[in-house]
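BUG: 3D viewer hangs when loading the predicted structure for this chain

Environment: internal workstation, default settings.
Expected: structure renders.
Actual: progress bar stalls at 90%.

Input used:
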Amino acid sequence: MSRARPLFSAYGIEIEYMIVDRETLGVLPVADKLLAAAAREEGAADVSMGPVTWSNELVNHVLEMKVTEPAKSLVGLAGQFAESVAMADALLAPLGGRLMPTGAHPFMDPLAETVLWPHEYSEIYKAFDAIFDCKGHGWSNLQSMHVNLPFRGDDEFGRLHAAIRVLLPIMPALAASSPLLDGKFTGFLDARMEQYSKNAARVPSVMAAVIPEAVFSEQEYRDRILAPMYRDIAPLDPSGVLQDEFLNARGAIARFDRSTIEIRVLDTQECPCADLALAGVLTAALKGLVEERWSTYEEQKAWGTRELANIFSQTIRTAGRTVVPQEYAKLFGVYAPSNIPARVIWRRLTHSCLPTMDYDPAWDKPLPVLVDQSSLARRILAALDGDMRPVNVRSVYAKLCDCLEKNEPYNVGLLGAAYYL
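Structure tokens produced before the viewer hung:
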């Protein structure tokens, strides 16, 4: 988004996928070969494939797909991403690979299997690696969907940032899709975010509390967030390669260079229609917050970072069953006699907000599964049913790869209470 656009007038969607061996599902570091085949040029880092562009990421087993131009609506994007997935799988077939969804590879050994991107932009990745050591789950094994939303001017920035801050803590309640690492259940439904939240510990100001600080103007953001971060990284980055907004690792980051806020806490789902349905629910809820349907701008601004971070830290563990305070639920027009599960808030938001947005029929199948059945993380655990043998893990994730290929939600049928959201 190169020029300032008003709130909710455009959408930037980015989805990351793992490249895995077609037979074993082990990570396959051939993103450079895939991009070269698509571009017919060695070392290509970005390839326009029509409405969707392919890009490299930090590691060579991850492919990013993103809208080539900001989309005026989310409608139609699920189909465009599905077509892009099909093209990638076709080019990966001769390399013995395919794409895998979800937020983390279930049995990758990052210490042994990490291969950094070796071509254009590699100096940036080398700088990150030198400072933070990128051979770990929090760097080399995490795939997400980023949603970029525009703003025009300080007032719109403040209102959008306030809305995003208060909704961030419960976004993983819907989005969690990474319960496994190293071949076993981690105890977190969103293990990607649990690992990610620790990956910049050497320079705490880069990540802070994941939830952004309560700042609501560009100058305040530059003074309180960007300047300390640049100052703290400088002794470790003498060439200044990382003195840029992309260094900011919070769960949502302001990109003043393109007048957007980028949301980064959403695990990749099992297929594009599920990812875009999630983006639709999310943006509809944010629009309601910005329009002050349930709480005022001042009420949203008043929530402290630590209070919100405490809710977030529980949500990445228990997803939709996370119990949130009554006062927090009131931000979304949910009034209850006691603290309530996050899933209740999302059901209310989904049914009250989606009718106000352009709606894509492609969301019809994934929405009931995502909102009324469970997060993908719980569906994965339900399918595994406690059996963590490698053969069973591979079987479940092979089915997830099939869901991605067919653009269909992963529905394991009627779940018992233990797996409900």
